[in-house]
Amino acid sequence: xxxxxQRFFAILSLVLALFWIAISRVPPAARLERxxxxxxxxxxAPDFSLQSTGGEIIxxxxxxxxPVILNFWASWCPPCRAEMPTLQALSERYSAEFxxxxxxxxxxxxxxxxxxxxxxxxxxxxxxxxTEGTAAAAYRVLSLPTTFFIDRQGxxxxxxxxxxxxxxxxxxxxxxxxxxxx
Length: 182
What we know:
The chain is of the alpha/beta class. The protein has 5 helices and 7 strands; from the N terminus they run αβββαβαβαββα. The protein has helices at residues 5-23, 78-94, 111-120, 134-138, 167-179; strands at 49-52, 57-59, 68-73, 99-104, 127-129, 146-150, 156-161. Strand 6 and strand 7 (156-161) form a beta hairpin. The relative contact order is 0.21. Mean pLDDT is 86; it is low at 28-36.
């Protein structure tokens, strides 16, 4: 039985997809066993405190009253890189109305590579360093990028696994959160 070109490409696509899933997973040390709250749509967003690249400690619960987008990423992740310019533009456009936090999956990345990507892409929104994997574990992040949309009351309204997210997709999820009364 011979493989046709169509079957060959179907098998190759499946193998590449499985490979991507395998390499984008969070390491075992940061997995579910350390999570105590379900980080899913309709549940309260797990609180955390992480240091930003600027040295500031940011605590999620201190941001209540404003919509928040959490975007977990790594510098080696092509979809993460692809969506960063869109996140930057969205942050610049709506900075007074919501908070965007980029959370570098530092357990899967190197800090020099993360800082290089931040500089290369001229990212100005806060980038937090999850050096111990605690935020990734609390949010049950199993692949990158993963984006959480959190309302003013601290409830997760939507979770998007994968990317890159388009501007239209981001705006469609963000604008209802911005439009809600505090």
